[in-house]
Amino acid sequence: MFDYQKYRPFTPLALPDRQWPNKTLTQAPVWCSVDLRDGNQALINPMNVKQKMRLFDLLVELGFKEIEVGFPSASQPDFDFVRTLIDEDRVPSDVTLQVLTQARHDLIERTYLSLKGAKRAIVHVYNSTSTVQREQVFKMSPQGILDIAVQGAKWLREGAMRYPQTEWTFQYSPESFTGTDMDHAIEVCDAVVAEWQPEKGRKVIINLPATVEVSTPNVFADQIEYFCRHFNQRDHVQISLHTHNDRGCGVAAAELGLLAGADRIEGTLLGNGERTGNMDIVTMAMNLYSQGVDPKLDLSNIPNIIAVVEACTDIAIAPRHPWAGELVYTAFSGSHQDAIRKSMQYHKDHKQTHWNVAYLPIDPRDIGRRYEAVVRINSQSGKGGVALVLERDFNIELPKWMHAHLSRLVQADVEKTGEEISPHGIKGLYDTHFVSVSDDWKLRNYHLNHHEQQVSAQFRVGNSELKGQGAGALEALSGALKKSYNCELEIVQFDQHALGAGSDANAQACVEVRVNNEILCATAIAGDTSAAALQALLTAFSHSRSSTAQGVA
Predict the structure, then answer these.
(1) How far is residue 162's CA from residue 248's CA, in Å, rounded to a whole number?
(2) pLDDT by residue (tens digit) across 84-133?
(3) Which CATH superfamily is domain 30-313 in?
């Protein structure tokens, strides 16, 4: 039932002196969106006029200068939409409409009728040239396929002459180019272009579609380079690519095709199209952007692009969609979170001029995303991510030795629920276990008497009095607690820093203590540095078992 032997590998071209592997992409191609034609015909429920207009307006807003808006000779709704764009003057002066037609006289005539009054337009004619379709579907000779193409080109030229007020560009596609013998494809395209005579000033596009993706991207690049080398009118014609995604390599094939000599790319926003989809323009444009190349499209508001595309196509965008997906800038792994946190801090401290942050190939803010989505916490997360969430969302900076204590609490919570924990959930655990303290353990006031290098201190804690001695206030309180509660108490870690600048800035104190065999942590904030330190110690001790063993002496 699952027999690989019924398939044969695609036979690649012999091109030992290929040049494209030594090239790099340094500029954006000419883009043409086919969302409203190829994308629309792939929908279960084709777009209505309102949806088409919304998507058209988005494409214009993003910066597309060439937009294929339909197949007006094959569909009355497409015909009406093209007429609406022209009659209502909805097409900006720098935008060119493109429409598709088969190489049939009646369809070409109706196509020109749909475009009457347009300032400029691209008429895109096609016929299939693939070996399998020629032999099995049309049952024709190679010459018969060539004759169809040339006749269609002639009808296209003659039709344009009847509408001289429009600036026409002719485009031809040998459909299923990748499944066509290359020499035959070149022969057909040479004959079509000879009919249009671009050397005399006519704008001509030859579009080479991977209508079905049948090979690896490098083989497609060889096909494009071979075509460009042997095509007679290469210097007078724009070479366009239209790749599909049957093997999941539509973007890669288009990129390598550009290296191989193409100038122009047709595709759809976010890859909607027949079968597995069309070449994804957002992905390819962002690939360029991430390499410091201007994509010539404004993709700064990805959330809005997704909202419009989903509303118009009724297709949800996958959360792991390249660049655009909801989760692509989100890290759950603890090691990833820690690396992001440290790398972003390094970026800030060293005032880096170029983006180079671990696990983030671009700055999410560039495309309308917020850092809130970068680090999210679940059972796979680590202490670095938890600490980053507190810093990022609540401006709470904890010393490194506290990260593990908080992370264990968060880990226990998410393992219990089996779900992601929100930033406010993390803050709640932090407050409960490190900040909250009952009234009985709140420092009301304290008094210190200094005698040489010794401090005698009195502390009002809740409704109780504590007395102790030590080298400083914290040691004095520690001694008072040990005496009153008959326990062992050791301050293991202590950290204190100002929250802000100026004489009126509050201080945050963090303490880790060992009470008998328990390790406890707490933080406290106060305007008085000593009060903050004392309250942190009291809060930590209040959470110990020893604190409930007996009352204050």
Answers:
(1) 43
(2) 999 999 999 999 999 999 999 999 999 999 999 999 999 999 999 999 99
(3) Aldolase class I (3.20.20.70)
